[in-house]
User: Fold this.
Amino acid sequence: MKEPAPNPLAQLLQKNQFIGWTCRVDYEHATVLTSDDLKAKASGVPLHCFLLATNLKADSIDTAGEILLLRVIGSAPLPQDAELLQRKSESLKNRELKIAANDSPKSEFQFGGLLCRALGTFYLQNNRLRLGSDVENYSNAVDLDVYRPSGAALSSIVNYVSAERAAAAEADAQRLGIANGMPAFPIGTVRYSSTDRLHRGDDAEKAVFNLNAIDFLARRTAIFGMTRTGKSNTVKQLVSVVMRASRECRLKIGQIIYDLNGEYANANQQDKGSIAEVFPEETIRYRMIPTPEFQPILNNFYTQIPEGHHTLRGLIELNRVSRSSDIDAFLNMEFNEPRREDFENDTTFTHHHIRYQRKIAAYHAVLARAGFEPPPGFKITFEAGASVKNKVNPIIDPANGLTPMQAYEWFQLARQIQDELITGNNQNWVEPDMNVLMNLLLQKNDQGSYIPGFRVLQPFKEYHAPNRTTDVCDEIYQHLLAGKIIILDLSVGNPDQRERLSKRIARHILASSMAVFNTGQIPPNIVIYIEEAHNLIGKGEPLTEVWPTIAKEGAKARLATVYATQEVSSIHPNILANTENIFCAHLNNENEINELAKYYDFRDFSKSIIRAQDVGFGRVKTLSNPFVIPIQVDKFDPEREKQRAGK
Ligand SMILES: Nc1ncnc2c1ncn2[C@@H]1O[C@H](COP(=O)(O)OP(=O)(O)OP(=O)(O)O)[C@@H](O)[C@H]1O
Ligand SMILES: [Mg+2]
Assistant:
């Protein structure tokens, strides 16, 4: 005889996990009657645990029934509690008096009520398990059997994905060229309470919680928790999930981590193994100062002129270098290349552009004198103008390119005959900025006295990357397109400079991906991880700034944002409201909790979030989950990750 197919509904019910009966159910709540014996047999009933209430039997093949999914949110008084309490205290007194020790009516005292929130109703539709998010109908007369699911049954509850969400995820995957949907990966196990001696004891089969990789692509993810509660560990898990999904689906997904503390780039003392160590071939690390095995975040000062100049300004200010008026004037200079659209006609534009070129030439000569290594074969090129050229040196034409040394000599000669040069048509040859740059180059001020000039810049040579031929932003974007993990180690370097560079890179990623989106194509998948997010997407930031724009609008351009902070309340409400995935470990005050409690059913966990300070004990709501799930996030294990990666 053919075995009947297992009934997915009845499979959720585990006979040995029976804990009691409902004595009251309504649309929102259920009261469950349980006993000490039953609870003990089922390894306890912690606060927040899931319960299943049904009139189906565990081995039923009846497909017509349904199962209510409940969450324990407290104890419930029973009508007879007052009387029982009175008798119990009497009995205790009697026991104390050593009277009637043998006839204590203990069994009567062991019953109690549990207050539960109704999370939804499991039923079968076309033989597939379905979870409605409410209670459609309830019976006042029928007592439902109640089970505390564990192990595999609990796993299937917490990993339940609705048919609609599964279809949407599959359609999303198909748009990305993935035929069979994206995989899910385990990142933790269900944990209800800080004290986990029983429900996660040695004998208990832990229920694995899986993350659906597709939930993160082109979405926002928040990771909340006080310091040292496992935010960075969760980020590492996510990076690994995305990397593994990318490999399995052969879909390139770029990931970029703004690593403020250098913890992802380096193996640090507390955490053995870092992302860079686990994924050595896919990880590219950038740093602000030259470091072996790191790429310089810095630019080539000869080619990225405003950036380089800005760096110098920051460094001189930071190092409180004593400044002459020429250095002050140098720091205040602008190096923006004139754009044709800003001028009335070609003639005025060309005129301005030639002047700009000369200024850049003098600046390049200053850099070269200060020992900033020019890029290989670098030539300084500018239009000197026929009469100036002939006066300075009729044989050499700077328009054909000068070596930095030749340029220095050329400017030196020009300075010697400066008075001659600034007559007639050449009135504007030595305009103020040019004059300052020539003073720095030749170490003489307008009065002819010695000034340190270019020497002021010498100590900062190491901030210049002579071999960089492309803009660092573009280089990073190309790596992201190739599906690499970029770690921007921002733990060292001048803070102002760091912020400017971080923003510039972010802006470049946004602009490049938006440009693809605007042509109607599918932009590449990129996940951006930011820590201390309240500083970047805080309430005070205008939504037009680059970080809030990425967080709010990046999804269109398939930019996913993962942000970590301990300050829920300071995140821009507009961004929080659009965040699809939320992880929350311990928070220490009600202000923060109240902010989070506005979302989904996080309110149920308010007290436990303040109270339980366990590292990695998080409450999770992802796009796929219909409700919040309390889990213990696995510790990022570099050895296991390496094995998974086949290393
Ligand atoms: N799930 C976990 N299980 C066990 N240990 C963990 C877990 N998560 C993190 N840890 C450990 O706890 C410490 C703090 O974790 P982590 O650095 O991830 O916290 P954080 O919230 O990012 O802290 P911070 O606010 O300082 O950045 C680390 O030593 C880490 O290895
Ligand atoms: Mg951290």
In short: The chain has a mean pLDDT of 89.
